[in-house]
Write a structure and sequence with these properties.
By secondary structure, the chain is α+β, with helices and mostly antiparallel strands. It has two domains: 3-200, DNA ligase/mRNA capping enzyme (D-amino Acid Aminotransferase, Chain A, domain 1), CATH 3.30.470; 205-329, Beta Barrel (OB fold (Dihydrolipoamide Acetyltransferase, E2P)). Helices cover 20% and strands 29% of the residues. The chain is globular, with a radius of gyration of 21 Å. The N and C termini lie far apart (46 Å).
Amino acid sequence: MSEAEHKVQPLMEAESVDSLPTGADYIYEPKWDGFRCLASKNGATVSLQSKAGQPLARYFPEIVAAFKKLPVTELVMDGELVIPCGDTLCFDHLLLRLHPAASRVLKLATATPAAFVVFDLLSLDGESIQSRTLLERKKLLSKVFTVHRLKSPFFLSPMVEDPQQAMKWLGQTGSSLDGIMAKKADAPYCAGSRECMQKLKLIRSADCVVGGFRYASKGRVVGSLLLGLYDEQGKLHHVGYTSSIKQDEKAALTVKLDRLEAEPGFTGRAPGGPSRWNSERSAEWVPLKPELVVEVAFDHVTGERFRHGTKLLRWRPDKAPAQCSIDQLQSAKANFKKLLKLKGSKGKP
């Protein structure tokens, strides 16, 4: 199967929550800081698919090679592509892999090889097991690792039934982890749905479309990015901005943004015009094609928009703009005191 013939399969998604769900019907896993990936092997054919449905195989040749060596004819695994850097993981190294030159990708694969952290099994030996419970799928996945003695670059993601242990993982966010996941133990693989999986992060974040930008008050370089999220009708609403752009990146970013200039930018709620609080110059904004996605951290949400400016965490070329939905903010009533109390309570939920 070529990348052009790549068949997109929806992945199970997660709902953001403000507190850890508990009960006998939940199991917990770390939320890894990498690229979500659905990996498929069928004979000598290997496919790596991003959460946005894009093929990733050409960017991770070392993972493809490892899958081809597996003594299994057919299987489909859900997991996370990561790049270890000492005792932590480097998301920036993943971004460098998305390069058009195969020679550059191969050089990076040798210098900073990726790993695949596996947390689910969807198919084995030609049989789909998506309808089986999560615990059943986990047992089969563990058996695959044991029987075939899988080792690096394959790693089996840990799981626990104890929420106290899960909260200890939450305290490790910021190094190798991006939060923790809570999954329903008796649920099938809920492809394309958020019903069976929830995620808890200490830092509240959202993936947003860059629908426009404003120039800095001095000089013709970008000053802030205007952020948008899609509603159920497919309209892109302006929800806030971020100005935390590194100074040495502004010139190149401005060139990139200028090339994407196109009306209307936002098809729903748009940025406001001049007011008593801003000058005509500072209120001007440039509309863009909705192609760029960024992850931003925020503190408060009011009326489905960020109350304050946000912090740009990273660019997300692995996510499709259409996946940036406004429902990310519906459960984003951040309660930092509660979260910080959990972090310091020796894992007690």
